[in-house]
Structures are given as structure tokens and as C-alpha cells.
What we know:
Number of helices: 19
Amino acid sequence: MAYFSRSVVLLILLVSLSPYCLSNPIQDIFHQCLSMDTTSLNQLPNLFVTPNNANFTSLLNSTAQNLRCIASYAAKPKLIFTPLHETHIQTAVICAKKLGIQLRFRSGGHDYEGLSYTSVMDPPYVVVDLAKLRGIDVNIKDNSVWVQAGATIGELYYRVAEKSKTHGVPAGLCTSLGVGGHITGGAYGSLMRKYGLAADNALDAKIIDANGRILDRKAMGEDVFWAIRGGGGGSFGVLVSWKLKLVPVPATVTTFNVPRTLEQGATKILYKWQQVAHTLDENLFIRVLIQTSQVPNTTQRTVTTTYNALFLGDAGRLQEIMKQSFPELGLTKEDCFEMSWLESVLFIAGYPRTVPTDVLLAGRPAFLNYFKAKSDFVVKPIPQNGIEGIWTRFLEEESPMMIWNPYGGMMANISESSIPFPHRNAIFKIQYVNSWMSPEKKAMDKHVDWVRKLVKPIPENGIEGIWKRFLEEESPMMIWNPYGGMMAKISESSIPFPHRNAIFKIQYVNSWMSPEKKAMDKHVDWVRKLYNYMTQYVSKFPRQAYVNYRDLDLGMNDKNGDDTSFVKASSWGTRYFKDNFNRLVKIKTEFDPDNFFKHEQSIPVLPLKGKSQRFKHPKWWKTHKKISVFSQSLWYITISLWKEDFPFTESKLYSWKTRYKIQAYHRTYPLESGNHLDKRKCFINRVYACNNANSKYLHTYIEGLESGFLMKTQITPLQCVLARDHYNGDNEDLRSRKG
């Protein structure tokens, strides 16, 4: 009732706003609207920070982890609003929707592309900073904890350990992550092989929808609760708090941090790690951080692989497991450190052992630089010569990094559809990161380009190619995280996070300290090169990515912010969520039909029935000669044709000129399973990738499908098109026409 009264009063007052107000600066009209919430009128002046305030820049930068996103050339908000209560957020949402103001919500500032506090879209925006909402209520009796969105993962771990030394939370490795956004992407950590993701262990949540209502799990419904547990932040509403399950941890755990360089046989050890990391005891998590370093007493650079581990048990049992399953690492008793689970959080995060645990209450990023990152999931081991190719690229760059995270265990036991996160069946995940310290855009472009080029095919292949690339860069890093264990036991659809059955995950990172744009371009280019190089060794159809490692290289919504396209969003949506993307789109369309919550890579809404979503051909359509036929990057499009709107005969459907005209008449609708052919109503133009370096054709199929449903399609930029008729079950080859 309180919400209803507040909403009615606000809406009446909003309607009374005179039109001339809309020509005033955003901060004025937004402040005027928020002032109508008389319950907090006295607090409001202290909750607004504009670019004219002396503390504007310091507040904007306070939790921003990536300096690239707050450089001088990056977009800045018109206003920062720092709510103290959930009611403040409700009012902000109601006002912003009425006034047509775009909102960005920041809990921890860890979005890799800075989408929680910056924007590359044209409309002006306001940042709602949730840092003051950081309440934590631990209930050991029922093994649960309520935590507000602005609290950090480090604070959460500390408060749980205050109440119990034998309880933990299966969430992130970086202690300054904001809880609100972290869990919306799935949230993996060192306990994921034993207990799965944080999103797998979410019991309830509170979300503010586009109408300003606060909804718990029961009120929002199971579909929306499924969507917010891995479907990415900023698409469905404002996550203000989570209720998480507490899991048992031993009073004493064991950790180790063992480095191995090229000179110490890093290639062979890493190759063996791929074979075993996802199949080890689910109590053992061993990730790999790959960086460049200096060979002692020389000017020569080398690549160092560091094995960073947590074992839920004592050192004696850990050594037994390692001797039996992974003797190549050469783990010794001196390498192992027994400690409490809370102390292990700091150890895994890279803090010295002398740092006290109360540093977790600081709530600020411990490491700041300019960086560009990407991610991959690996379903079969990378050969040794492929790893050597990575080393080549690492030695080209200044500060590159790869993080390889193992899977297996519980991750493989959970369905890909249990939550939106679908990446369950890989053996590990890769994160590509390149960092730098220069604020110049030239520096940024350089380093970002390095990351992007890492996936371009080169003569070398396999692990040895990785080493060579590492020596090109100043500060490269890779982190390899194993999967398996519980990750392999959960369905890909149990939550939106589908990446369950990988053997490991790779994170690519390149960092730098120069603010120059030239430096940025150089280091970003390196990351892209390494990412391109890795194409042949990682997941395909689609090439998967982790939504919490946001990457705008995969595509983005229109810059004007007026529309989101299912066709366009599929280019990144299927990579982040696989088949769960279709369900996310359907839920988004029902829950936020006006698409109020949106950003560069938000989940799109489907157009209303009868509203056409015009498709534009990709650039390669007319410039195919400039595109390498070896490229395996995919386009995802969906085209449905209503017979009554289709002015051409079926015989003309396959002609090349007609193909261009078809696009103006297609319509998109939700995906459903079990559809039957109804050729009286519609056609589906379904295109599959042929992904063959020697192929000269793009295979196109025509299928009949019951009216009003989507079909995911895949295209590779090859040089010609072969149309093949599969309509109504017939397999009659049609003539091939050059593109």
C-alpha cells in the first residue's frame, strides 16, 4: 500500500510538470522529480552529485576498476545519484521512465566495459550508485545470508566468517566485486567445482521493476527469478538484494601458488593440466595465471605459468592427490599453506599472507590499471604446439595475462538451462586480459588491438604459439580456470549461465598504465590478435563467452538507444547464453515490454506483432573479397516470412535479387519447441555456417515452420551462396549463384 500511494502521488505530480521543464538540464528535471518523494526530501541534496561538484570525478572513479572506461575521452554521466534506501531507487526509476532518462546502475564497478557507469550510446544518462546499500544479514541457523547490492564479495565473506569459521559462499575470486551485478552473470569462484556458481545457490532476491515495484521471488515469478541468475545485469530491473545459501567449508583449508617458466617446462606442465584439472577431486580447484616475466640476471623475457589452488582439506591429503593425478607440477610440502577459508580468499586474490583479513572491508579495487579482456571456454585440450603459439604472442606485448579456470565437478552436474549461464560442459574457461597505465587513447587502441588479434589464425598452432605471442607484449596475462565437479552436474538450462561442461575457462588480460590513446590502441590490438589466434582451439557454434567479462567486440545495440534488435543482439547473446538466450528474450519481452532497462548489450525485447524489424546485410555481403574465407566468426540472424506479406512466388524465393527484397518483410517472434510445418502461413530462411577453409559456398536452407516463431541461424563470411531447398521435407538442390 505504501508503494501504491507513493507511485500515485509521483505520477500525478509528474503529469503536472510543465513542458518547458523538459528543456532544462537533466540534473534539474531529475532533481525536481525526485524531490516529490517527500519521505526523504531532507536527504536529497546530499544524494546528487553533478559535474559541477568538486567530488564528481572522485565519486565516478571510486569503484571503477578499468581506467580505460573513465579516461578523458570516455563518456561521462550527467548526474550521479547515491540512494540511501530502496525507496530512493523506486522513485528514481519512476522519474527516469516518465522523463525518458536512461539510467545506469552500479554496485561494484567491475563491468569490463564500464557499462554500469559509462556509455557508448548517444542518449545522456544518469548513474545510480548503489554503494551505500551494503547491508548483510547472516543467518547461520538456516544456512543463508541476505546481502544488499552495494556490498562487496569481500565484505560478504568477512561477515559470514564472523559468524562461523565453517561456512562459506561460492562466489567470486576478486574481493571488490559488487554483489548486485556479480551474481546476475552467474558468479564463479574457487568453490564452483564443489558447489557450483553463486547463482546456483541463490534462494531469493529483491528486484525493482520498470514500474518502480519491489518484487521478491514469489512476486516476480520463477521465470524472472531464473533470468536474473546469470542473464546479465541491466536488462530486467534493479537488483537491490540477494538471499544466498551458505555452504560448509572445513575449518582448515590448503592453498598453493606454484610458478613454472618456459625454462622449467611450462608447456608440458600446462598441457597435462588440461587433461586433469577438470577431473580432479571436486574439493580441489587449480587455476592457471599466465604472464610474462624477466629471466633472472638477464634482459631476456619469458612466460610464467602460476598454478593457484584451493583445496578443501589438509596439506597431507592434497599432496596425495597431486602425486597421483598431477605429479608433473612437482608440488612439495613447502609449497602448501594451511589456513582458514577466509584467509584463503585473500591468498587466492593475490594478497601477501601478512595482510590482515579486515582489508576485505575496504570495499575498493586493490589493483587499478587500463585493461582489455576477453574470454573463452575450452571443450578439448589445446595441443602443445598451439600453446607455443600463445607464448609467441605474449612476448610481443607489455602486460598481457590469461586466466585459465577449470570446470568439472558440480559444474558438469547442473543443466545448461537451470539458470541462463549455459557454460557447463567445457573443460576450462579462458579470460584474455591486456592492461596498461597510459590514459591516452592511442595507447588504448594499441593494447586492445593486441587482444583482438590473438584469435587470428597464424602459421603456428597450439600451445607453443601462445608462448611466442606473450613475448610480444609488455604485461600480458592468461588465467586458466578448471571446471568439472559440481559444475558438470548441473543442467545448462537450470539458470541462464549455460557453460557447465567445459574442461576449463580462459580469461585473456592485457594491462597498461599510459593514458594515451595510442598506447590503448596498441595493447587492445594485441588482445584481439591473441583472441583470434585461439579460435581453432576453443568452443565453436557458438564460440562461447562469459557475460561477466563483458566484451563489446562481440557487438552492441544501436547507439541511439531507441531500439534493440533480436537479430543484432543474437551476435553476443548466443555466445553468452547459448540456447538460453531465446528464453531470456521471451522473459524480457513480458517483464519489461517497453525496454526501459537497456544498455549496449542488454537483452532485447521482441517487436509487437505486426511491427517489422528490418534486417541489414552485414558489411561482408558486398565486400566478400576482403574477407578471409578461413574466418570462423559467426553471424546469427533470424528471418520469418509471413505468406500474406510475401509478394513473390515460391519459385522466385531463391533468386539472388529477390533475396534482398525478402528482408523488408520478415518478422520476429518468440522461439518455441515442437513446431510443425504450416506452409500456408510462413517460411523460415535458415542459414548454416560451413566453416571450412576450403569451402567456396555458404549453405542456405529454406524450411517451413509454423507461423510466428524464431529460428537461430549461422553465417560465415564466405564468397558464394549455394541455395538448397529443404522446404516441406524436399531435398532438391538449387542452382548456386556467386555473391
